[in-house]
């Protein structure tokens, strides 16, 4: 069934093993997508049908969580490595690549930004306090997120969405991008130089942030704007795809038709 223009775009959210459940997700992700006018659906990483699934969705949101297996970017685990789930890594890397190949809008959040970087050939810092230092606190030792400022780079998709050159964000990560994937460019950074957002130049459908907009969207229109961007790009993608489909000639040969 074709969606009508007023139907909510379907936004795939990557769920994961969490709090003892085989798959689960913090409710704020779905709340922010709903508020933006999207219809959130969860994808469990144990399910093998990711590529079929993504073809039926209108956008992909890669969520936060534990560490990506270091062997996926040529590193070895150390004592800081935690909550590695190889099934989840494989499922999300496949989803990210499929979404980009199909022209679906993609928003990566925290680990989701790291997955995007690894999926496209980049590497990660195993532990920021060890490699970059503690000038900026990116993860508090208590179990509450910390706020820090990020600088938004002019001329980027992110700057256009946030309409600002600096925003205050909610941070909860101990890893970060080390070598940026060749296809990506930096669109935000912290005062210590840590990469806080990336996008693909000339592709207005791919954006990822190292912070957690779902923590503060309810009170911060700039953070909610990221979810609105995702849902709006999904709507525009529908229009593009249905134009393309309706413009295609019927290629099925009729009985008796001569092929040349
Ligand atoms: Mn940070």
Morphology call: globular
Element string (H = helix, E = strand): EEEHEHEHEHEHEHEEEEEHH
Report Rg.
Answer: 19 Å
The structural class is: alpha/beta
Helix content: 25-40%
Unreliable stretches? 249-260
Number of helices: 8
The distinct ligands, each listed once, are: manganese (II) ion
Strand order of the largest sheet: 4-1-5-6-13-12-11-8-9
Give the averaged pLDDT, no decimals: 91
Distance between the termini: 35 Å
Query: Main β-sheet, in a few words?
Result: 9 strands, mixed
As a percent range, the share of strand residues is 15-25%
Number-wise, the strands total: 13
What order do the helices and strands come in, and which of them pair?
Layout: E1 10-14, E2 16-18, E3 21-24, H1 27-35, E4 39-43, H2 50-55, E5 59-62, H3 86-102, E6 106-109, H4 111-119, E7 124-125, H5 128-131, E8 146-152, H6 157-162, E9 166-171, E10 176-177, E11 185-189, E12 195-200, E13 203-209, H7 213-216, H8 221-246
The structure holds manganese (II) ion (MN).
């Amino acid at each position: 069934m074709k969606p009508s223009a007023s139907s909510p775009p379907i936004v795939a959210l990557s769920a994961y093993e969490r709090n003892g459940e085989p798959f689960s997700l913090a409710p704020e992700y779905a709340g922010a997508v709903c508020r933006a006018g999207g219809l959130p659906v969860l994808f469990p990483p144990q399910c093998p049908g990711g590529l079929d699934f993504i073809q039926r969705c209108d956008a992909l949101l890669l969520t936060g969580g534990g560490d990506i297996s270091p062997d996926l970017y040529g590193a070895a685990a150390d004592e800081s490595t935690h909550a590695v789930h190889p099934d989840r890594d494989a499922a999300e890397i496949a989803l990210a690549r499929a979404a980009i190949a199909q022209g679906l809008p993609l928003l990566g959040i925290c680990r989701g930004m790291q997955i995007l970087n690894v999926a496209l050939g980049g590497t990660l810092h195993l532990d920021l306090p060890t490699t970059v230092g503690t000038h900026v606190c990116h993860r508090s030792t208590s179990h509450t997120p910390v706020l820090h400022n990020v600088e938004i780079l002019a001329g980027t998709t992110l700057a256009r969405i946030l309409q600002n050159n600096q925003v205050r964000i909610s941070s909860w990560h101990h890893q970060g991008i080390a070598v940026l994937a060749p296809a990506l460019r930096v669109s935000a950074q912290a005062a210590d130089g840590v990469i806080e957002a990336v996008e693909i130049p000339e592709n207005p459908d791919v954006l990822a942030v190292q912070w957690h907009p779902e923590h503060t969207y309810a009170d911060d229109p700039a953070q909610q704007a990221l979810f609105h961007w995702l849902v709006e790009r999904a709507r525009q993608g529908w229009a593009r795809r249905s134009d393309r489909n309706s413009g295609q000639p019927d290629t099925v040969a009729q009985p008796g038709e001569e092929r040349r």
